[in-house]
Design goal:
Blueprint lengths: L5 E6 L2 H10 L3 E4 L12 H10 L4 E4 L11 H13 L4 E4 L10 H11 L3 E4 L9 H8 L5 E6 L6 H13 L9 E4 L8 H6 L4 E4 L14 H12 L1
Parallel strand pairs: 1-2, 1-8, 2-3, 3-4, 4-5, 5-6, 6-7
Helix pairs in contact: 1-2, 1-8, 3-4
Length: 229
């Protein structure tokens, strides 16, 4: 991947993936069931998308809506299947009932991932202590990205937090890249770019006709051009 700012797009199937790559996406987040905010896709779906595009794919590891890990045995089994099918980048993140990082679940999963790169997703926006979460996860192998809006309610309310965290890049717990997503709009980009943010994640914004319609290559291209401006 080049040094340009990263644009990651949610893809549900091969059609989405091809359109996103055509529009200029650098990476895809693969999920299914957006009614549950994105769950683990089937191994067959991963394989079909992997055959359709040649950009990096990050596969969601999550079996139910919310940020509880649930059945960790089932989740590690799915991770093993995806690894066997060639998946080598992932998205995960779980909290305990009191908003602390669920290290037991996370560590069991990353043991299966065996060094693969992964994103800790928007569970950070629901954490009781963002800074504490970052520091507790700091030494986990493969963690290179946090997907965050800066606030549970979205980027509108998280701009100040995102800028503050970007300013701490390189400090313990702040080495992973910040991938901004969750209510992200084009009009946020100048403020975010000025603050030094260099990675952006879109889902619904890539689908002007809604989640029942596929990704629009033109919509992705609009984002690509705006990010690069």
């Amino acid at each position: 991947m080049s040094n340009r700012a990263v644009l990651e797009v949610i893809a549900l199937d091969e059609e989405d993936a091809v359109a996103a790559q055509t529009g200029g996406a650098d990476r895809l987040e693969l999920v299914t069931d957006m009614a549950a905010d994105g769950l683990t896709p089937s191994t067959a779906s991963f394989a079909a998308i992997r055959s359709a595009v040649d950009i990096p794919l990050r596969v969601m590891l999550r079996l139910a809506d919310g940020f509880a890990a649930g059945d960790v045995d089932a989740l590690t089994g799915r991770a093993e299947e995806l690894r066997s099918a060639g998946a080598d980048e992932f998205v995960l993140g779980f909290l305990t009932a009191d908003g602390e990082p669920d290290l037991v679940a996370v560590e069991r999963l990353i043991a299966v991932l065996d060094g693969c790169r992964w994103t800790f997703h928007r569970a950070i926006d629901r954490a009781a202590d963002r800074d504490g979460l970052r520091k507790r996860l700091a030494d986990l192998p493969g963690l290179d990205t946090y997907l965050t809006a800066g606030a549970a309610t979205g980027v509108d309310d998280g701009l100040t937090t995102l800028a503050a965290e970007a300013a701490r890049a390189g400090e313990p717990g702040y080495e992973p890249q910040i991938l901004v997503g969750g209510g992200l709009r084009l009009d946020h980009l100048p403020t975010l770019r000025a603050a030094g943010l260099t990675a952006f994640h879109i889902g619904g914004a890539a689908r002007p006709r809604g989640w029942t319609a596929p990704v629009s290559a033109d919509a992705v291209r609009t984002w690509r051009e705006a990010i690069d401006a």
